[in-house]
Specification:
single chain, two-stranded antiparallel sheet, globular, 2 strands, alpha+beta, 2 helices
Length: 46
């Protein structure tokens, strides 16, 4: 899901993610933070 949301953020305008103690809309995060969230999420599933 996050990989598709990264490639097509316009399709996920309502996607909320938890970031360092607060919630934020995925499409409002900058590119670097999106990549960081994806990398941390992938690590937790390995």
């Amino acid at each position: 899901l996050l990989e598709d949301a990264y490639r097509h953020p316009e399709k996920y305008r309502g996607l909320m993610v938890r970031v360092a103690g607060y919630s934020a809309l995925w499409c409002e995060l900058d590119d670097g933070l999106r990549k960081d969230i994806m990398n941390r999420t992938e690590m937790s599933f390995d």
